[in-house]
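Dear colleagues,

As part of the handover before I leave the project, I'm documenting each prediction I ran so the next person doesn't have to rerun anything. This entry is a single chain, and its sequence is reproduced below.
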Amino acid sequence: MKFPGRRKIKHYFPVNADNRFDRESMTFGHAHTFVCGIDQNIVDIYAHVDESVLADFGLNKAMSQLMSNETASRLYQFLQGYDLIDSQYAGGTIGNTLHNYSILADDRSVQFGVMSQNIAVGDYAYGYLCNTSSKVDLSYLQPVEGPIGRCYTLITPDGERTFGISPGLMNALTPEYISEEVIQNSSALMLCAYTLGDASLPIYNATLKAAELACKHQVPVVLTLGTAGLVDAIKDSLTAFIEKYVTVLAMNEDEAASLTGHKDPLLACEVALDLADMILLTAGPDGLYVAGHTETELARVTDNPILSAGISDFNRYEFSRPLLKASCDHPMKVYSHINPYMGGPEKIKNTNGAGDGALAAVIHDMAANAFHQQVLPTSGKHNRTWLTYSSFSQICKYANRVSYEVLAQSSPRLSRSLPEREDSLEESYWAK
């Protein structure tokens, strides 16, 4: 497990005279920390085609539309036969997040979902496996006789993009393939609202089972919202699900507005904190927000300039660490914001996955906290049920940096870890 940022060797495990780490302890080197998640496994397929191809396969130009499995298979064979496929990327919100987490943490994650039973070298299912970090454990995937999801991006000579989506059997995951042992021993369970969109699908019941097991074993549940349209469609049931199961809620500004009724990101975070313990809200060119709860007596005042927007002096206590609201005697809401790293990349190659990258950073910090607690349970960093290893402010910085890295590349999945950085004085405070 890598810790977020770079620790000088002598301070890698913060200690003091009373809780110095016993280097002969069997815990060190044998602490196993991982996260898990459920995804609708899908492959993003990019191809340059003539407009005649769109007509031949019944696709409306510049629109996003559903395709039957039969049509999707014919299209794939056509694109392969004429060597028109530019690239095939493993997709899916949770799949992206798990992959990025494993790259950042250099540690294991476990993915639940489905995978085609029969895979040929070079096909889309093979591409999915090749584009996924070897640290992501795919041994719990449910085998299916048929295709996983496929999303075609067809680019015509004028540069216009047409999208064709074929769900395949990506929603066929059954509750039997959800391992209680995996969830019980994980540091977090990641879910996406897409799997909650249709109660008649097997994956819906698999998601409910996973959420119930996570709550049973006190494992934090992280939910990312799909689209604003999905939130509007299932708002009542989604709100009830969040209130009952969710610890950390991730969303963009449009999804936040649909859920809370507030277009102002800060006000949306304020309302969302009545549903979940912690919020990650990405706001595109306006940066991102992290909000949560902390104990009033333990709140730390920031050294950064005090900011006001929808909430006055909203970042005053951003040097505090997030807590479960139920763990606070006198809970207070805390907010932190950061503008895009270095103003954002000079050239944005891909906006798909930036939010997933930011969420991977948050999950990494949560897992680092769980790992450190296993290795050094007597540390002062674990005198409460803290959700993360770092403060609201540091989480903002880390999530922002990962998001930048995704925006600057073509794929939503990181190919390498981030450049290392030194600890700040703020982090070293918590090392005492």
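The chain is about 30% helix and 20% strand. Residues 7-19, 21-27, 421-432 have pLDDT under 50 and may be disordered.

All the best with the project,
I.
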